[in-house]
Amino acid sequence: MNNQDLLEISEKFGSPVYVYDAEKIISQYNRLTSAFSGVKNLRIHYAVKALSNISVLGLFQQLGAGLDTVSIQEVKLGLEAGVDPANIIYTPNGVSLEEIEAVAALGVQINIDNLSILEQFGTRNPDVPVCIRINPHVMAGGNTNISVGHIDSKFGVSIHQIPHLLRIVENTGMHINGIHMHTGSDILDIEVFLYASEILFETARNFKDLEFMDFGSGFKVPYKEGDIETNIEELGGKLTAKFKSFCKEYGRDLTLAFEPGKYLVSEAGKFVARVNVIKQTTSTVFAGVDSGFNHLIRPMFYGSRHEIHNLSNPEGKERFYSVVGYICETDTFASNRRIPEIKEGDLLAFSNAGAYCYSMASNFNSRYRPPEVLWYNGEAHLIRKRETFEDILRGQVKLDLSALKETV
């Protein structure tokens, strides 16, 4: 998928528009599985929260991947996409016991991350196999909002609570078939990840009937040319050796599971927006586009960087621009960024727009959410329509307030 393809897609489907390159998704999946080819039983669960379009979920199903879900709605999307419930793991946080039991009834692997729900679920459903999410108390991740394995995190059962956890398992007679951890996103230091894995191995020794160990994900992808990223191949070699050694000690081959989201879809995504206005102030040149943080919130939410390419003038002389949106709040995609000269009407492409872009989009300012397009086998396929005013009104109830005038 090249610049001309993106220009033609924008011409056909309008702007703004999300575009996902299926070939890049497939290559990322293959790179990850190749890095762990030495593992006898490997399972990749794609993290649905990164990008939940059912056509994308169907692509992962065709690749042989399962799904990592965090809500009953994500589970149902996976089932709608044709994914076998046995290949879906459900790892909620702070949800009701009723939701967990409803998901269990669908035949999905349950992963519980707190002692209270574990005891209640195990008491009522002792025959349902359960995975337990452990908090290894390891700080990892590129931003405090995406670091989830540290001691103050709301996620997981603390490793210091293992004795309590074991008492619950014994008292309920429940079957623990998996152990799970997730330290955070944008992991760079492989040694920190391997250190956390040792904690998971140590925890696993307390359970005699495990079927799998889930090491989460959080692998960093590059956000600009020459950017650093997680060395998947090095991690694959080192963790494979540790895992095989543990399995030998444990007495049988377990399944090694990961749940990548951003790693698989981030680089596959482009977000294309049109420049509405070039605004020169006393100190800045603003390029205002027909979008905002209602469609791409990550720069404002996480301070994330997205490379911006001028599709309409890729070889132009570079100038400094602050690229901003049309939302009625501070709404900045990039500040003082070198970009080939931009004119009103030009189309800009934002890179790394595959993960947490549409899935975190909103109707703020009553704007429509854009369409989604999958570039597959050299063709553009619409996989979500652009919203309309009817979509904005859907679900709203208009009250008859005429009687209010009589009382005012």
Automatic annotation (TrEMBL):
Positions of the catalytic residues? 328
Pfam families registered for this protein in UniProt: Orn_Arg_deC_N, Orn_DAP_Arg_deC
UniProt modified residues of type N6-(pyridoxal phosphate)lysine: 49
- The catalytic activity of this protein is classed by the Enzyme Commission as 4.1.1.20
- Locate the residues binding pyridoxal 5'-phosphate: 218, 356
Q: Which reaction does it catalyse?
A: meso-2,6-diaminopimelate + H(+) = L-lysine + CO2
- Kindly list the GO molecular function terms attached to this UniProt entry: diaminopimelate decarboxylase activity; pyridoxal phosphate binding
What role does this protein play? Specifically catalyzes the decarboxylation of meso-diaminopimelate (meso-DAP) to L-lysine.
Q: Which family is this protein grouped under?
A: Belongs to the Orn/Lys/Arg decarboxylase class-II family. LysA subfamily.
**NCBIfam families linked to this entry:** lysA (TIGR01048)
Q: What is this protein called?
A: Diaminopimelate decarboxylase
